[in-house]
Amino acid sequence: MGKTIMYAAMSADGYVARTDGDIGPLFDWFGNGPIAWNWLGGEMRTNQASKDFIQTVYSDIGAMVVGRYVFDQTNGWDGQAVAGDHVFVVTHEPPRTWEYADTAPFTFVTGGVESAIAQAREVAGDRIVDVAAGNVGGQALRLGVIDQVVMNVVPVVFGDGRPFFGSAAGEVTLANPSLVAQGDGVTHLLYDVPRSAKI
């Protein structure tokens, strides 16, 4: 079975978006470097350190797990799985109308985060399951079903917003970073989640 990672860009004070959902400059580093390369079907421009980090950590994605908020903010990426073969959306209620519902590789999961990740693991097999940071990622971490936490820390302070680890209560101790890379306008950190931290 492949790894399950929690992944996102975040502000220096720990937010994946502003309170209104605006991401500000959190992904500017995708296009501000000297090296052009392809990732997830699009062109990136980063420095070599960012390229190496992403290709090491975030490759061979089999499936994604996101919350309803991310789905609504992106309109489900217009029915495309932006990473992996399938997207599992954790929601209390599936959308009643969505123009891509009959063709998109999306499953709306009403049984909670653990159910969504279990279904994603079935699809991903030996590949990675990518869980979006925020409330869904934070719940998954505290449930003990995350193997690694990937933070792409951007040097901006929002002051308030949507926390990287969501609002769920509970303490989890991570290992020291096993990989650190300095990009242009971003610092990449990879943390393993110790077995003792998992339920």
Q: How would you describe the overall organization of this protein?
A:
By secondary structure, the chain is α/β, with parallel strands linked by helices. The protein has one domain (4-17, 60-178, 187-197): Dihydrofolate Reductase, subunit A, CATH 3.40.430.10. It has helices spanning 48-57, 68-79, 113-124, 135-143; strands at 4-11, 15-17, 35-39, 42-46, 61-67, 86-90, 106-109, 128-132, 148-154, 162-163, 177-182, 187-192. An eight-stranded mixed beta sheet has the order 7-6-5-8-1-9-12-11, with helices on both faces. Strand 3 and strand 4 (42-46) form a beta hairpin. The radius of gyration is 16 Å and the shape is globular. The mean pLDDT is 93.
Please sum up the structure shown.
This protein is α/β, with parallel strands linked by helices and 199 residues long. Helices cover 22% and strands 32% of the residues.
